[in-house]
């Protein structure tokens, strides 16, 4: 059994959690399409929504109008909203036109949004009907990317959860990695595990519909993202077993994540050290270079991306920061419990009452505040340095080779503020 080299400290796992249920400041769940459509090469995401949904995706994804992205919006017009048209007939017609024009599509996701008329449409039945119509060439699934969900990363969780029931069955003892990562980071993770001798492994989501991973009672799965609670439950219902571990942020988190997987598959300590020694050393060196500007600084997390608790663990234990408050949209201890076990923090909060949390942040005056786009500029105007939470989802930050870049995302705002203050003093 590999021995985890944990640093002894207090833990927030069993500490009281401040639960707030007030006004929230969150981004739309449709945002997940922006990284998912790049990951699944033969999938298409058809949002059933309004022109606002179309504008969000167009602007957030930065896709030129003459490009052929793998997402689009079936826009509800005035006659649809007035109930003058049959929404299912309209949807069937739009899907048929889309698939005729784009024969490369093998998976079609119907993504629900938050207009009241969309919520009334039974997209699950529509997906079943359309799957029968267009089988076997196209599989149609559905999930909700509604802006009234808890947080924008729930879009990926809902998408992967929808895929779990259609995954092939297997009795093999295999490893499944769950969560969408940039290809270069995913390749690093797969290379490390294969070098340890773990050969029967796959990833959800797969890049193509014909490469879907198989799941069964002997499947072990490790999460790559901390916002996949519903996907975890769906895989467990399929008989798979979750490997709990801190998330692979920084040198320590990556090592503990890999060790948890290695222990499950009987990797020896000698083999583990042979594979990880060099990248661990590189990660420690890269983090220490960035941590010079973070050591002794305080940080405050508003709930946004669901990465907050694992990132707070990384910043406090590897970069020497002090976490004043770590807010998360919701806390699934079965998923983030291993990170919480290692984390010492002033306050852990779940949910949000944005005005009360703003008051606590202003009173604390942290050196760095992690928050959504809507709060960043006002807080900067009040003299607080901020980091956009959404940037942490779009930037490669997992595993050893990205550990220094992850620390750099937090050190740069502080370095910029220091330079500006020096310039003002001169």
Question: Would you give an account of this structure?
Answer:
- By secondary structure, the protein is α/β, with parallel strands linked by helices.
- It has 3 domains: 18-24 and 281-425, Nitrogenase molybdenum iron protein domain (Rossmann fold, 3-Layer(aba) Sandwich), CATH 3.40.50; 29-149, Nitrogenase molybdenum iron protein domain (Rossmann fold, 3-Layer(aba) Sandwich); 175-274, Nitrogenase molybdenum iron protein domain (Rossmann fold, 3-Layer(aba) Sandwich).
- 45% of the residues lie in helices and 15% in strands.
- The protein is built from 17 helices and 14 strands.
- It has helices at residues 33-39, 51-61, 78-81, 87-101, 116-119, 123-134, 154-163, 183-195, 229-237, 250-264, 269-291, 308-318, 333-342, 354-364, 373-381, 391-394, 403-425; strands spanning 18-21, 43-49, 71-75, 107-112, 139-144, 175-178, 201-204, 220-223, 241-242, 298-301, 322-328, 347-352, 368-371, 386-388.
- The strands form 3 sheets. A 6-stranded parallel β-sheet has the order 1-12-11-10-13-14, with helices on both faces. A 4-stranded parallel β-sheet has the order 3-2-4-5.
- Helix 12 (308-318) links the parallel strand 10 (298-301) and strand 11.
- Helix 10 packs across helix 12 (308-318).
CATH class of the largest domain: Alpha Beta
**Annotated CATH topology of the largest domain:** Rossmann fold
The amount of beta strand, in percent, is 15-25%
Major sheet details: 6 strands, parallel
Number of domains: 3
In the CATH hierarchy, the architecture of the largest domain is 3-Layer(aba) Sandwich
Q: Output the strand order for the largest sheet.
A: 1-12-11-10-13-14
**Structural class designation:** alpha/beta
| Gyration radius over CA | 22 Å
Taken from the alpha-carbon principal axes, the silhouette is globular
The helix content, as a percent range, equals 40-55%
């Amino acid at each position: 059994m590999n021995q985890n080299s944990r640093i002894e400290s207090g833990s927030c796992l069993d500490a009281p959690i401040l639960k707030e249920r007030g006004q929230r400041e969150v981004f739309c769940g449709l945002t997940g399409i922006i990284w998912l459509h790049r990951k699944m090469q033969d999938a298409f995401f058809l949002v059933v929504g309004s022109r606002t949904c179309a504008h969000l995706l167009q602007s957030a994804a930065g896709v030129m109008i003459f490009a052929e992205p793998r997402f689009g919006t079936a826009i509800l017009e005035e006659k649809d909203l007035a109930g003058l048209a049959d929404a299912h007939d309209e949807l069937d017609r739009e899907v048929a036109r889309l698939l005729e024009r784009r024969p490369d599509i093998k998976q079609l996701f119907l993504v629900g949004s938050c207009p009241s008329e969309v919520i009334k449409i039974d997209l699950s039945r529509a997906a079943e009907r359309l799957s029968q119509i267009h089988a076997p060439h196209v599989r149609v699934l559905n999930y909700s990317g509604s802006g009234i969900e808890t947080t924008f990363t729930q879009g990926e969780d809902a998408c992967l959860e929808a895929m779990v029931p259609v995954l092939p069955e297997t009795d093999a003892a295999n490893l499944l990695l769950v969560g969408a990562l940039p290809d270069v980071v995913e390749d690093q993770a797969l290379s490390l595990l294969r070098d340890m001798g773990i050969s029967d492994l796959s990833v959800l989501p797969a890049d193509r519909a014909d490469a879907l991973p198989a799941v069964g009672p002997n499947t072990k799965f490790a999460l790559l993202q901390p916002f996949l609670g519903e996907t975890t439950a769906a895989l467990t219902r399929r008989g798979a077993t979750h490997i709990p571990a801190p998330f692979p942020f920084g040198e320590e988190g990556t090592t503990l994540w890999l060790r948890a997987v290695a222990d499950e598959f009987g990797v020896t300590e000698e083999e583990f050290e042979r594979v990880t020694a060099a990248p661990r050393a590189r990660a420690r060196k890269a983090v220490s270079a960035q941590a010079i500007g973070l050591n002794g600084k305080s940080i405050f997390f508003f709930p946004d991306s669901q990465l907050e608790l694992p990132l707070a663990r990384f910043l406090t234990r590897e970069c020497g920061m002090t976490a004043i408050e770590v807010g998360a949209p919701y806390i699934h201890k079965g998923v983030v419990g291993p990170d919480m076990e290692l984390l010492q923090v002033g306050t852990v909060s779940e949910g949000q009452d944005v005005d009360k949390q703003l008051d606590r942040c202003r009173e604390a005056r942290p050196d760095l505040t992690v928050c959504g786009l809507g709060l960043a500029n006002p807080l900067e105007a009040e003299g607080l340095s901020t980091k956009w939470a959404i940037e942490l989802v779009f930037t490669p930050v997992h595993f050893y080779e990205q550990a220094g870049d992850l620390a750099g995302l937090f050190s740069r705002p502080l370095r910029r503020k220091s330079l500006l203050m020096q310039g003002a003093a001169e």
